[in-house]
Fold this sequence. Notes:
alpha/beta, TIM Barrel, eight-stranded parallel β-barrel, two-stranded antiparallel sheet, 11 helices, 40% helix
Amino acid sequence: MKVTEHIKKASGKTLFSFEVIPPQKGSSIQELYNNIDPLMEFKPPFIDVTTSREQYIYIEKDGLLDRKITRMRPGTVGICAALKYKYNVDAVPHVLCGGFTREETEYLLVDCHYLGIHNVMALRGDAMSHQKYFEPTNGGHTYAIDLVKQIKNLNCGKYLHDVVEAHDKANFCIGVAGYPEKHIEAPSLQTDLKRLKEKVEAGAEYVVTQMFFDNKKYFEFIDAARKIGIEVPIIPGIKPLAVKRHLNVLPQVFKIDLPEELIKGVEKCKDTNEVRSLGVEWSIAQCKELLQAGVPVLHFYSMGKSDNVQAIASALF
C-alpha cells in the first residue's frame, strides 16, 4: 500500500513510522531485527530504509596505497524485501542520485516493482567524504527533482531507452525531503520551498522533514508551504537527542538550531543515561504537541537504536 493510502485510511489518526540503517557488512541482519522487533507493537504501516553512499578505501600493495571503491552496507532493496516479508509492512527504500547512474537507478526501481515495493524516497544524497560539495555521479542525476521525474516516467511505462507496453506498470508513491530550517546549500528558506514545490509538481506525493527540535520551525514551514501551493502530506521527522556530542554534531552536520532550553538541560546532565532520558522527555513533549496539531505521521530517526524510540512511542500510542 502507498504511504499516502495509509494516511488516508487512518482518517486523521496520527500514524507511527521510523527509519532504519542497514547493518554494516559482516553483521547479521538479526541485529537489525532486534532493534525493529520492540517497535512493531506500535503498528508502523511503513519503515524507511536508508541507502549509504559508496566510499573509497586504501589498500597497501607493493608499498603503495591502491584506492578502491566499496560500499560498507548491504543493498537497501534487499533489506526492504526482508522487512516487507518478515513483518508484513511496507518498506520504503531511499533512492539516491549520488552513487548511481540513471541506468542503475532504473534497475533498482524495476527490482522494487517486482518485489512488491510500492514506495520510494527520492533523495539527492550527500557528498562523499572526500568532497566538499555534492558532485553528481557520471551518468547520474544532479538533483532530486530529476530522480522524481525518472520514477514518474517509469510509472507511465517510459524507460530510459524505450517505452514498454505493459499491463503491469510500476505505480510508485514518491516521497521527498523537506527542510523546516532550509537545506544546507539553499540560499534561503523561500528558495528551498520553491525547489520543494517543483519536486511536488514533478510527481512527489508526500514530504518527510529533516529533524527539528523546535515545533515552531515545523509549523512555520507548514504554513509557508501551504501558502505557495504545496498540499501534499508533510510528515515531521523526529530525532531523540541521545548523547552530549549531539549538541555540536547535529547543528554542524544538519545545520539546525537547538532550543536554548534543551541545550541547558543537556549541559546539566552528568552522564549519557541522563542525556538519553532528557532526549526522550523532550521528544515526548514535542510529539504531544504535534499530535494535538493532527500531523499525519510521527516519523522517527532511530539511527540503529530503538530503546529511546520505544520509550517515546509507549508514552504516545
